[in-house]
């Protein structure tokens, strides 16, 4: 629901923050970003809050806001609105951000946290900190708010602030504790999400008292929801949860923990899981995860896989191949249309899936232009407890380690025998289709785009690989690189090409 205002004037903002008799008690109006004239209406009435709660009186707040990304930006925007429209509640806001970091190949690109520009436009004082060693709170700060910050706030600073610290976390704590709850929510195909307002614990991340929390049924995840959409949805809800908590004085001692109210919800949701920081291994394609390749590419970024690169020797060296681009449209998975010369009217269509039944792949016409191949991938085998103990014991005594780790195999032993591969790696194969070579006019007069020669179609996964990078090398087109390394072969054996 939206309310249209003539201009984002101070009177409009004051109306948004003041109670309105014609609105339900739990509706909050907040303005859009500067330059936009919509006033957004957020209506939430199903959050977990203490029963028969009476708002507490708080001193005017001088907030130290610690944030970084787009998720934390929404909370800062709404707190600033409250500061402008109700200075008796929020007197001032100081912002702490992480210093800019270099990213990309060669660390040549310097990125600024998005929240810096937001703070500067609102004339808020900004402090850049990568740690809090020998750093003191600005004078008068009585509340610390950390939203998607990434640094642990030391107990020394929390004790200096009269009201301690608060945190907005985009999950239904204690479920999905960790640095990447949004990523893991989508990767686990959750049907709902939530937001939690908790205190900042003096010892560990995400272990504070839960002051308020949304209910699962109030935040269902739409089908096909992207990471950006989920982040925006939870950011807006988290900002509203934080603003209402400050209005009602949930931060004022004695604090009320609503965790007992949440026990039935968590029991219904099943086993609690963690949401650790997304690392390189989370984007690796394995036998178990390759079926989720589209989701992984959308949520985490470029996926990668291990394969034997046999461009230099017969046995091969374990190489990491990065999939820079995946096209998962139906027309990409099944190159459906091949048109003949202009005016010929010739159109050849590839087979398509109909429900759970796949039509014969390919028919005679299709086989004339494409040929079947096998794309071979591999990943490290998980060690059993006894193997891990044996490896640790051998390393501590300085004896030879018979169970090789993947790092040692790639770094110390570039030439792998079939026995090495069988002992340390799980190898699996994917059905693939590629254009026949040489490229050019077919006997029937049909021409295909030149770039299509370089694509690798994976019909079982309904996608095609467009660009593949060998780790540490430059960008290469998928098919030539995979064929040179003999990861893409006509045979089904790991090391022998038929």
UniProtKB/TrEMBL annotation:
Its EC number is 2.1.2.9. SUPFAM superfamilies: Formyltransferase (SSF53328). It holds the Pfam family Formyl_trans_N. GO terms for cellular component: mitochondrion. Coiled coil: none annotated. Residues 62-245 form the Formyl transferase N-terminal domain. InterPro entries: Formyl_transf_N, Formyl_transf_N_sf, Met-tRNA-FMT_N. Gene3D superfamilies: 3.40.50.12230. It is an enzyme of class 2 (transferase). Keywords: Transferase. One of its GO terms (molecular function) is methionyl-tRNA formyltransferase activity. PANTHER family: METHIONYL-TRNA FORMYLTRANSFERASE (PTHR11138), METHIONYL-TRNA FORMYLTRANSFERASE, MITOCHONDRIAL (PTHR11138:SF5). This is methionyl-tRNA formyltransferase.
